[in-house]
Amino acid sequence: MLHRHLITTLMAVLLPVSAAYASGDMSCDPISALRQPSYMCGGVPILSPGNDTRINAMLLMVDSSRLSPVFPDPKSVPLADRTNQLVVPFAYDFSGWINIGQKMPDTSSDTSDGASPSNLYADGEGSICLSDASGSAAFNDAVHAAKDLPADDATRLIAGRAAFECAAGKTGTVWTKPSDLKSALGRQFATYVDGAYAFYESNFVSASKAFADASHSTNPWLRETALYMAGRAQLNAAQAGAFDANSYALDSTKVNKLELGAADTVFRAYLKVYPRGRYAASATGLQRRVAWLGSNTAQQAALYSKAFANWSPSTSNVPLVQLANELDSKLLQTSNLDTRQLESPSVLAIVDLMQMRTSGGDSESSRQKSLTLNELQAQKPRFASAPALYDYLVAAWYVYLGHKPEQALALLPQAPAASLDYFGLSQQTLRGFALEDSGQADQARQLWAELIPLAKYRLQREALELALSINLEQARLLDRVFADDSPIQNAAIRAILLYRGADADLLRAQAQNTATSRALRDIALYTLLYKELTRTHYADFIADLALIPATPSDALKPFALSRLANDGGYACPSVRDIATTLQQDPGDAKGLNCLAEFVRTYPAAGGLDEYPVVTVVPPAPAGTENVPVTLGSVPSQFPGGSYQRMSSYQKVIGTAQAPSDDRAYALYRAINCFAPGGFSECGGNDIPKSARKQWFTTLKSEYPRSKWAQSSKYYW
Known about the structure:
Layout: H1 6-14, H2 53-61, H3 64-67, H4 132-145, H5 151-163, H6 184-200, H7 204-214, H8 220-239, H9 257-273, H10 280-293, H11 297-309, H12 320-332, H13 345-355, H14 364-368, H15 373-378, H16 387-402, H17 405-411, H18 422-437, H19 441-451, H20 460-474, H21 478-481, H22 491-500, H23 504-511, H24 518-534, H25 538-544, H26 575-584, H27 589-601, H28 645-653, H29 660-672, H30 689-702, H31 707-711
Helix pairs in contact: 2-12, 2-13, 4-5, 5-6, 6-7, 6-8, 7-8, 8-9, 8-10, 9-10, 10-11, 11-12, 13-16, 16-17, 16-18, 17-18, 18-19, 18-20, 19-20, 22-24, 23-24, 24-25, 25-26, 26-27, 27-28, 28-29, 29-30
């Protein structure tokens, strides 16, 4: 069931949902919570079962100082949007492609560029043609730099290399190796061109032989480049025909194991001779492809751990998002993943967290799908080099699945390290969750407050402010969120709590708080006025109208109108007059209709009158521990229930002595609440269809000359 409420509205602005969820569940519903036991659209900057596996991979395997700039920058949110865009949970774009290895050309369109990189083949693998232009330029530079190469040989070699151009695995020309080159070095370069021509003709066996011959050259560039290209040629020979022509899926049984082994040998040799060579980053990436094509899970995991640990924006040839995509698609999402082969602690931890996900309940079926404590304990030897990570995983199991917070607390550091990196933040937030689960909400609150000044990496402070805000809201201590010395400064967090939880005194104080932003003052005043009007606090509403500034915001303008818009002929006075009338007579038919008309014309911002289903207060009752506690989930401290227009219409309909025009209008509006599909947007969905039929009959029979009766043709 879909619930339209403020949190979803705010999160939808920040968290666009992608079409695919890496190693995730089929459903996706972003929530404003730091603790996420099941897969969620929004990411959090802590190791979490609910994170996309790619986010957990980056958190686990990349140094915090390098990772922090990769995460979304809270300062990039425009000032005008900061009250309606939560920073944590955050969105992340994983749409980048993984450009390694061969890829078929895109022939799905009528474009003339047959060599355009396809977005359909093998999860975005790079076309061999991608290296043609850069390879030609590098060849020309090497020829010009070769001092012992005669000028005539150089001219002929450059012209020969430039004559063919890769397109759809064909060069479109015929290359013939010159037989009358004057120098031995010229002939070595010509052998390299033989290899390049064969390579871009997709004749990988011939290319491998030519490159192998050229790799024995005395020229440094030729020697290094030919060795690297020999590995590329053998790798492409190994995978030729291994991808289905229709689905582009890999059939590992069609991989040429002999050629794949040869490619692996060449890349190893290249990296041994040229550990910092010009192609070292590419060769390392292609080693990962060799391991993938060979279904070597252990080698894949080891290579990914190394790639992430060594990643930097200046030295790596793959953006971090692409590396995360590659890990996810080439290893974590494989159907035959055998975790027993994973010796890398970090990669194994990513899988463990994924297997700790729950369906949001404590049912036996969800437990059967999850990682067991025995399985986790059996992995301990593989975490010998990372004992703190192992302790974290076991503690996470106790928090998310075992519901034994005391055992979790015994495994976690009692105090954060001097520098709060992302792993340290993960440890301390898990400790905070365990404290809350064990009934120690006060100690958790103290922990959140102590951690906030230690936050130095991107999104850490925002995550901790969210955790502290939820804690304070659950404890009914909203005043502390808005105190002068409050560490909670995030505008969206404050806005949610103003909209959803604040009482009249807090709203009135914040509406006049010049130390806060105009946007938050307007939200406080809007919420105060709306709730006073719709919860029958008419005297307070009339008095607080004086707080509206001379130049009101768009949200406040309806409260300052001299009269409401005349919709179809039913005229309503100003909202002040409506409140004055209802203060004098709460059952006044015109006043009730016009109150409903005001709400219909100017609906509550962001679902102000609707509440989320979750209202759990730690410690959670048994059986609900996996239901995440979200910001804004506690019922409002503002007295009075939420308003639905149907209540006003029913009161007028039920008043037989109400003026005919007012009662006819109430009948008309009540009927049309259910148009056109039978579901009311005004409340009252428990009203049977027979009652709506009776309303229609009454409108037609008792008020046949009214414009409302004459314009009504159906009931729903």
